[in-house]
Amino acid sequence: MILTHRGKSPTIDPTATVAPTAVVCGDVRVGPGARILHGAVLTAEDGHVSVGEDTVVMENALVKARAGHDVRIGDAVVIGPHVHVNGAEVGDECFIATGAAIFPGAVIEHGCEVRIRGVVQVNTRLTTGTVLPIGWIAVGTPAAMLPPERHEEVWAIQQDLDFSGTVYGVDRTTSMRELLRRQSEFYGAHADDEVIG
């Protein structure tokens, strides 16, 4: 399904393929030879998504841009099943494995691997050729890579990365009630989306 969002429509190269059950919404550019598989969602909400040449976005992946956090996925990249790329950059020839999560402001340089269920936190950079092990968390710049059982160390670094401000545009003291009121209002704009393909 191809949709306009906030007056912007996707641009899909004629050599690219978008599965009939995928969603491409808003200011999204899909490059030559790219493949967007079943159930994948690429949505640009006050941002821009760019998918490079010969990149494959696999089943049920979510690629989401937001204000101030465009998504750029380079050439010859695998975005695995159930991956979440939100407001981040992924360089050429990267492999992002099943269930990985990449948060706003993250930069994954050329040739990196984020293995199954790996997490790249907000405003974190993986330098060229880095391999993030299965289930590990990358946090900070330069990135510290830690297993999930070292959560307290992850949290100590993450506190300075401004998750709430980066992801939601609010400070950490904002109540869930207020945060979700704002999010509900923001996502309400999808009521005006139009199917164009």
From TrEMBL:
InterPro entries: Transf_Hexapept/Carb_Anhydrase, Trimer_LpxA-like_sf. It comes from the Bacteria. Coiled coil: none annotated. This is Gamma carbonic anhydrase family protein.
